[in-house]
Amino acid sequence: MSRINTNINALNALRSLNDINTQLSVSQLRLATGKRINNAADDAAGYTIAKKFNARSQGLGQSLANIGSAKNLMSVAEGHLNNILDILTQMKTKATQAADDSLGTSERSAIQAELSALGTQIDLEVTQATWNSNSIFGTGNSTSGSASSVQFKFQIGAGASSTNDVLKFDLLRKANVSLESGNTNFKANGLRVSVGTAGRAVTSSASAQALMGRIDTAIADVSEALSYIGSVVNRLTYQETSLTVARTNTEAARSRIEDADMAYEQLQATKLQILQQTASAMLAQANAGPQSILQLFG
After folding, report:
1. Minimal CA–CA distance to 95: which of 176, 206, 229?
2. ∠ CA(40), CA(45), CA(48), 5° rounding?
3. Region for residue 187 given its phi and psi (left: phi exceeds 0; alpha: psi -120 to 50; beta: otherwise)
4. H or E element that contains 278
5. For domain 65-254, is the CATH number 1.20.1330.10?
6. Integer Cα distance of 183 and 284 in angstroms
7. pTM here?
8. Quick one: pLDDT band at residue 182, thresholds 50, 70, 90?
9. What is the C-alpha to C-alpha distance for residues 190 and 198, in angstroms, rounded to an integer?
């Protein structure tokens, strides 16, 4: 204590106070943000791992949103197909009525006009079945006459695998429907129930019975398409459950690395605040220590 040019005790106290202030600022930042890692310097390896987990979690979240949109598309398709099925059922009733010879020519003509109107409504249902300007039921290829359908690729996973992370929905091909060549869609021509087309009419009992057979086939095709939609929706539901579990686990893994233990950080902050006060007091005492040398000049 006889040397006053350099106060070693005060310097040590100041160093300790600076260290405590640095630790306290880190602890307070973690309490403010809820994160243990606020920059790469806090934990270089943990920062990298946590960001990878976060990217995967965000991808899984978007995949879940994609599944929701896919289900909405399925609902649109199912709604229109159910309407078409109801129309076909009504057409079957009218064709059965026309097959009875108790009707005359004028009565059958009236039934044919009604059947034609119902066929027009089927065409309208197909035309209206769109999603983001894409036809759900597909259209016929007018140049080649071959089957032409719209394939929707639903991104239902966070990876790039076309096998596990992409679901391909193709109503015409996958539903195994037997549509008429050159009219490969669910319109009345494609279902072979367009009255007045290609000699189709209900001018006699035989022609009405032939139409009844075609309507039965059309009902089977539409029912098959509805069954396919149901299977796709079921798969989407299972995938949704799987992705929800995967996202939860991914978030848990990221949280263990990146998020702060709030109870522990509060404990640390309280301890450091006390140490800050004691270090400040010790610094004040260390600064006052050399004043005792003045007693030598009394």
Report:
1. 206
2. 70
3. beta
4. helix 262-288
5. yes
6. 95
7. 0.78
8. low
9. 12
- Average pLDDT over all residues of the chain: 87
Distances 281 to 81, 218, 273, 284 between C-alpha atoms, Å: 82, 92, 13, 5
E strand or H helix that includes residue 55: helix 44-98
What letters, b where the CB count within 10 A reaches 16 and e where it falls short, cover 90-103? ebbebbebbbeeeb
Give the integer Cα–Cα distance in Å for 84 and 36.
58
Contact 70, 243 (CB under 8 A): no
- Single-letter residue type at 250: T
- The domain locations on the chain are 8-34+260-297, 65-254
List, as one string, the DSSP characters of 121-167: HHHHHHHH-EETTEESS----TTT-S-----EEEE-SSS--TTTSEE
**Strands in the chain per DSSP E:** 130-131, 134-135, 152-155, 166-169
State residue 183's pLDDT score: 65
Residue 205, phi then psi, degrees to nearest 5: -60, -40
The predicted model gives 95-103 an average pLDDT of: 90
Taking CA 285 as the corner, what is the angle to CA 282 and CA 290, rounded to the nearest 5 degrees?
A: 135
Closest to 211 in 3D by CA, of 119, 117, 33, 91: 91
pLDDT tens string 267-296: 999 999 999 999 999 988 888 887 777 777
List 259's β-bridge partners, or say none: 35
* CB contact at 8 A, 233 and 71: yes
State both tokens at 12.
């040590």
| Cβ neighbour number for residue 17 with a 10 Å cutoff | 19
pLDDT greater than 70 at residue 266 = yes
Classified as helix, coil or strand, 243 is helix
Per-residue pLDDT tens over the stretch 114-156? 999 999 999 999 999 988 888 888 754 333 334 456 788 999 9
Question: Which tokens hold the place of 69?
Answer: 């949109």
Instruction: Identify any residues that bridge with 167 across adjacent strands, giving them in sequence order.
Output: 154
